[in-house]
């Protein structure tokens, strides 16, 4: 019997990084939340999509990267936690698809 994890570690990591980088820090006492259910993992952070509108993927599956917190993004990039290319959501999708075949 081969056991598979409920969530792809890479997808979880990318989701947390995205939530921290793109959240608003304008409101005291707010935080990133991670909720685990039987059929999904929900990561939420304070604030709307930065710049308004909706996320629309580019042809390669990445997104135009709009940084709400450029200094924090720079630190995470230097730590190799992110690439600063708008590829986090694509990586989450790919890691999750790889988990289930």
UniProtKB/TrEMBL annotation:
Pfam families: HATPase_c_4
Name under which the protein is recorded: Uncharacterized protein
Gene3D superfamilies (UniProt xref): 3.30.565.60
PANTHER family in alphabetical order: GLPR-RELATED TRANSCRIPTIONAL REPRESSOR, SCHLAFEN ALBA-2 DOMAIN-CONTAINING PROTEIN
Domain of life: Bacteria
